[in-house]
Each structure stands twice: as structure tokens, then as C-alpha cells.
Specification:
- The complex is a heterodimer of chains A (108) and B (181).
- Chain A has helices spanning 2-8, 15-23, 30-40, 49-61, 81-107; strands at residues 28-29, 65-71, 74-79.
- Chain A has 108 residues and is an alpha+beta fold.
- Chain A has a single domain, classed as Orthogonal Bundle (Arc Repressor Mutant, subunit A), CATH 1.10.10.
- In chain A, α2 (15-23) crosses α3.
- Chain B has 181 residues and is an alpha+beta fold.
- Chain B folds into two domains: 5-95, no CATH class; 108-180.
- Chain B is built from five helices and six strands, in the order βαβββαββααα.
- In chain B, the strands form two sheets. Chain B has a three-stranded antiparallel beta sheet with strand order 1-3-2.
- In chain B, β5 (81-86) and β6 (89-95) form a beta hairpin.
- Chain B is globular, with a radius of gyration of 20 Å.
- Chain B starts with a strand and ends with a helix.
- Classes of the chains: A alpha+beta (108), B alpha+beta (181).
């Protein structure tokens, strides 16, 4: 039960945070994350550097991501095991919402 | 003359950062004055050059050493020039290309967090301030100079709290906006 609560305090994720975490399925530095988010969202979500840096600080503090290396001055981050569980929980929730939405509308 | 350094004087408070951004943009676009440095409380040094439509953006972030290098690099990769830092306020600029000036915050949540950090600093400063005003020192030092000093400190603190409320209002408004989206 406690484990579930631990995940719950990180949820729901904002749209930007969700895509940032998705991008970090493989280790990336900040700018690569920005590009990957745009790619993953098919250009619908763009993350500015202020938003991204703030997300990095918050996610690192919550231990959802971890610094795994450096490329010159750029820090490289990756998702932690906890981050992965949070991401999965959020994705489940989104899937549920999408399914409920299409079911409710097809019944009309 | 091009290349010369000119100074302009203007006071902006913590909750007026967007006014400050607009003012800096107008200076660059209309007068060809490009920010070099800012010295509190009111001195802005500019280099005179060609007129350029620069969007200025302020972030509030406490960074140190390697963190700063990584932070500035991220903005540079995204096309933002780091002009300088003053007490955790970072000044960035980027030419405006077509239409709307670019933003460094792309959602209201992260923008609310920025003002949350500004608010936290206000609170931190309030603690020693209240301690000084409540100090027993005032009982031992009586007379007009001490009274005047105490009054000045009190007025400044009231103003500080006013600033806190303005920043808090910004945080609340942005959080509401975040809930709607």
C-alpha cells in the first residue's frame, strides 16, 4: 500500500513533464530532450529551456531521474526505476481516460 | 556612437519582471541599446549598436559552479544568449523572428514554480528582518536616531511583505491557469 502512495504523490504529471520523462527512456542531455519531446508529440508540445531546467531540478530532487554522465558542459539524465514506475502509472491512467472517453461517446 | 557604453536608470521590483522584459526589448528595438549588465537597485548598462528586436526573458534560479555551466548551456542550445546574472535573476535574450516573442516557459505550471522560488527567497529574508525588529537591542538604544532607524526598517519590511503578496498573487493566478489547461 505504501508503495502505491509513493507513486501517487508524483501524479498526475503535467503534459510537459510526461513527455520529458518519456524522452528520458534513454539517457539524453537537455537540448536532446527538447528535440525528442517535439518528435514524440509530433510537434504538438514544445518545451522551453526555463520549463525544462525547472523540470530537471524537480525530477532529480524527487529521484525520478538521475544524472548519468556529462557531455562537455551538458549534464546527461536518465529515468530511474521509480521514474519508470511513475511514468507507467501515468500512462495507465491516460489509457483509461482515453478508453472511457471513446466508450462513452460511442454509446451516445 | 556605436559601441559606447550608456547607462539608464530604472527601478523594477520582483513582481515587475515582465515589465522589465518589455522595457529591455524596447531599448534594443527602438534605440539599439543592448544590455551589458544590471547593478541593483537601478543601474542598467547598455552597449550602443544596431537596432535589433531582442526578446528578453528573466529566470530566477539559484545555480552554482557546474550547475550554472549546464544551465547556461541548455539555454544557449535553445538559442538564448545569457546576458548576465544578478542575485539569482538570470537575463537571457534572443532575436524575435516573426510574430510573437519566444518564451522560456512553455506552461503555466513551470512559470508558477519560478515565482514560487522568488517567493521562497522573500520568506527567507523575512526571518532575520523580524528578528532584528523584535530584538532587545531597541530597549538599550533609545533616542531619535535609533527610533528613526527602527521606523525605516519597519517601513522597508512592510514594503517587502507587499512585494511578497504581489509575487504570491502571481503564483496563485498561474496555478489557476494551469488547472484550466
Amino acid at each position: 500500500m505504501r508503495k502505491k502512495d509513493d507513486l501517487a504523490k508524483h501524479l498526475p504529471l503535467t503534459e510537459s513533464t510526461y513527455y520529458i520523462m518519456l524522452a528520458l527512456a534513454r539517457p539524453l542531455h537537455g537540448y536532446a530532450v527538447m528535440q525528442r519531446v517535439e518528435e514524440l508529440s509530433r510537434g504538438t508540445v514544445r518545451v522551453g529551456p526555463g520549463t525544462l531546467y525547472g523540470a530537471f531540478v524537480a525530477l532529480e530532487r524527487a529521484k525520478l531521474i538521475l544524472k548519468v554522465g556529462e557531455e562537455g558542459r551538458r549534464k546527461v539524465y536518465a529515468l530511474t526505476a521509480l521514474g519508470n514506475r511513475v511514468l507507467t502509472a501515468h500512462a495507465d491512467r491516460l489509457r483509461m481516460m482515453a478508453r472511457a472517453g471513446s466508450e462513452a461517446r460511442s454509446r451516445r | 556612437m556605436q559601441g559606447e557604453t550608456v547607462r539608464r536608470y530604472r527601478v523594477f521590483f520582483a513582481w515587475q519582471d515582465e515589465d522589465e522584459e518589455r522595457w529591455l526589448r524596447a531599448k534594443a528595438r527602438d534605440e539599439g541599446l543592448h544590455l551589458l549588465s544590471y547593478t541593483p537597485p537601478c543601474v542598467y548598462a547598455f552597449r550602443r549598436g544596431e537596432r535589433v528586436d531582442y526578446a528578453y526573458r528573466l529566470d530566477f534560479q539559484r545555480t552554482r559552479g557546474q550547475d550554472t555551466a549546464d544551465y547556461v548551456q541548455l539555454f544557449a542550445d535553445a538559442g538564448w544568449e545569457h546576458v548576465g546574472e544578478m542575485g539569482s535573476w538570470h537575463y537571457f535574450r534572443r532575436p524575435v523572428t516573426g510574430g510573437e516573442p519566444p518564451e522560456i516557459f512553455t506552461d503555466p505550471e513551470s512559470k508558477a514554480q519560478k515565482y514560487g522560488r522568488v517567493l521562497a527567497l522573500h520568506v527567507v529574508f523575512l526571518v532575520p528582518w523580524i528578528t532584528i525588529l523584535n530584538s532587545r537591542l531597541w530597549e538599550r538604544h533609545t533616542g531619535t536616531p535609533a527610533e528613526v532607524l527602527r521606523l525605516l526598517l519597519l517601513v522597508a519590511m512592510v514594503f517587502w511583505m507587499y512585494s511578497m503578496l504581489r509575487v504570491l498573487a502571481r503564483v496563485i493566478r498561474l496555478r489557476k491557469q494551469a488547472k484550466r489547461t
